[in-house]
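Input/output pair, single chain:
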Amino acid sequence: MTDQVVTRFAPSPTGFLHIGGARTALFNWLYARHTGGRMLLRIEDTDRVRSTDAAVTAIIDGLSWLGLDADEPPISQFERAARHREVAEEMLARGQAYLCFATPAELEEMREKAKAEKRPPRYDGRWRDRDPAEAPPGVKPVIRLRAPQEGETVVHDRVQGEVRFPNRDLDDFVLLRSDGTPTYMHAVVVDDHDMDVTHIIRGDDHLTNAGRQTLIYRAMGWDVPVMAHIPLIHGEDGAKLSKRHGALGVEAYREMGYLPEALLNYLARLGWSHGDDEIMSIEDMVRWFDVDDVNKGAARFDFAKLNALNGVYMRAADDAQLTDAAMAVREHLPEASPVKAAPDTEAREKLEAAMPGLKDRAKTLVELLDASAFLFAPRPLELDDKAAAILADGGRQIVAALLPRFEAAPDWSHDALEALVREHAEANGLKLGKVAQPLRAALTGRSTSPGVFDVLVVLGREESLARLHDQARG
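Output:
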């Protein structure tokens, strides 16, 4: 085994990179970076019916968007089937495994008997010491591990502690099926050994596999990697994470307008923490992360916390970079959205110009784009209920009274326009908010928006005056 730490992320390409898988990839990536090691990617594509090329692409794209690229090209488990067979046959030759000719009917009988006796189904070892010459004709054998029948197998887990498996419960499980294909249990061990994996960091739903896989390592005389089984993510209600909780693919979070750095920060803190630090850069995480600090208990996914964290990252983001991210999310908006309908160049220019005011109020890029709709809305604006009420309740008169001042304004800048409106408010004994709210409603069609003077500047003199005229006339 190599002296350098080698971790691996090993998803099955039967769907997108889901959020739990993304966190597992993150922990593997962080630990490799923290120790100066490498993270590898293995695509566990032995289920040929459910594995798809589209899913492989989606997984790799998802990791790339998050910035969790593996250090070497991905390895296909399916393409290594000959190597898996070779190791199973080597174990057979060394007496660490044996041929089993039990028929499907016999195996079903064992299952039914175990069920009747209210015990877990176990293979009864009937071919463990029999001569293959006694095999019934026409039955293709499987290769089974000759597992120890007494004592226990101990897994020293970096998260779960010492986990003990009575060997009588592990039974002589199948390594190679009768058609020559390897089982998952066997393929994983051979791949991890051949890839020089030193640390297996994966979900604790694999903890029950750890005992059986340890037996294969020992049968081959191989070093057993360090294991760390991290708790699964649950929903806010404590139930196993499902789609209603947020068990979506990473691409869904991208389309919902989350920033990758915010999502990584949030995922890192699901089951791991560094003191009271809430906001952590990727450099902080690499410096601080240790698998020994991962909690045993299940973490709870909370959209409200993710939204708040994403808002922090958006407010701190560079306007040009945030505009790029918003333009990418814009592609996924409904066709009817005025933001999507605008020409690319116009959309980019207006978004970037309005970005300082837009990003201060939004928690996701979708919210930001929704708030930017006023920039692209056709005239006359469609008013929401609150905006319509503001204009109906004396707001139109305020807009009409301000119009001559705006038309005569020599300087269409934020500060000049603010001074103009303040002066009007004071001259008429009004509070600034009483004047600003009708302006906002007339300019955006909404009761909330970026600062009204920012709106005036971003829309420009011509468009602003046209919208104000529309509403002043009613």
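The CA atoms of residues 423 and 432 lie 9 Å apart. Residues 319-376 form one domain.
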